[in-house]
Amino acid sequence: MERVDPVTLKPLTESNAFSLHYRNEDNDRAAEVTGRLAKLFLSYNQKSREQAAQGAAKFLSQLPG
Length: 65
Prior knowledge:
Blueprint (H helix, E strand, L loop, with lengths): L1 E2 L14 E2 L7 H35 L4
Antiparallel strand pairs: 1-2
């Protein structure tokens, strides 16, 4: 996995974009694996955002006023 510019696809050192390549001669298997990878990525991303939101909410609730 490498970080790439989403427009030019050139590798970047500071980016949150990435590309992932998977090949399989069995189209059904390729679709299954691709779908599973996407689901795992989205699930991880959602959990990460929820944790960040919880941290922000905790911080804001501790502010005076």
